[in-house]
Fold:
Amino acid sequence: MSASTFRFDNTYARDLQGFYAPWEPASVPSPSLLFFNQELALELGLDSEVLDGPEGAAIFAGNQVPEGAEPLAQAYAGHQFGGFSPQLGDGRALLLGEVIDRLGQHRDLMLKGSGRTPFSRGGDGKATVGPMLREVLIGEAMHALGIPTTRALAVAGTGEPVYRQQPLPGAVLTRVAASHLRVGTFEFFAARKDTNRVRQLADYALARHDPDLVETTDQYLTLLRHVAQRQAALIAQWMNVGFIHGVMNTDNMTISGETIDYGPCAFMEAYDPEAVFSSIDHGGRYAYGNQPLIARWNIARLAETLLPLIAKGESEYAVAKAVDQATEVIDAFPEWYAAALLRGQKEKLGLQSGDDKLDRALAADWLTLLHEHAVDFTLGWRRLADAAGGDEMPLRSLFPHLQAPDAWLARWRSRVESERGHALGESEWAERMRRVNPAVIPRNHRVEEALSAASEREDLAPFRRLLNAIRRPYDETQDQAEYTEPAGAEVTACYRTFCGT
Structure:
């Protein structure tokens, strides 16, 4: 393997010694490439011809460490379902290093499922084909929808069984991220009262994600604010496509603002703020409608770790002032989230200017209507674009009674007409709405069909067809038709997702 295949510059390994354990991936008996992301490889400046074959399979399965890589398991803690675990860390993942992409940006390259590490806590450190391909599907769907996300570069089969409730085929995922810094990374050192390490980590995060703040005053308070704003914008995007993360622990919230760790995640079908699909979320802590509240809660945990840095001293006055300043950020989160949510909703409604208060009520009443009649979230929005083009029947047919949306549609049409005027015709207006209201999402039953075929029969064709469809979420063409329809209510009602560990 030529040294030029990967352009590594491993700042985490170099600048944060003591924040990780150097480690090597486990070898596997028979590596094979199940998925390779050509588009992402091009972004990263990688040699696709070399990597999309046996040599790539050896690297992405962990059998061959590329020249320049410095594999390590990162240390972090985390609040999991509200309870604090002071030591988690990469129990089945290894950061190979950071590659410099074509834009000159550092991008983490991480193996997931590459064997036990010092943080494994009794686990086998392995992963199976199904959950790793799920991460490909959901990550690529989110990317196609324009939502900040980690992405899969490759999935390699290992040729060995992994034992869960039954033996399953093993796999290793290669994940790309802006970084893997988490709220939990800060919690790890704050819990040990190691303020110097927290400061070192904060300085690294600033240099990596907010370089313009490095030389400013109050840079740690501003870092907190920027992370909160990024998360507010991210969660609003989740909510506007009906995405449910499923396990919003603090170790699953990034400093970069990217979505990470696609475990028991799902896209909602019939609109329901209380929707939960995760088999481990018994109390509904991470239900769809709770996601903004949990994000704010997680930001409060980050604020606690940064308080000694924000305070700039140990006097009672300095600490009290820091608490007030951090609380202002936490209390501003709902406003930032609401503004980001409304921006997205206005676009989905076909609106731009106008009275935000009235439009917020219009959007809220639309969601209430969808909820009352158990209308599919994605199709409800998509068919609203058809109504904007003059054809209301596809939308009305989603309701138990064709007249159910009459009153709301009259309000919405009046609002649209007041803004549209004569600048655009109906068809142009409808097309603009279709560019922000997807027709295709990773429908849960389609995801399960694809993963079952891959895991149980080694048949990757359904996975590849679904992947092709979700990469074109706004195309409603004949070849996409089977991926636009929801499962029956009897399937959705009992659907559960699992973390895959």
In short: Residues 3-180 form one domain.
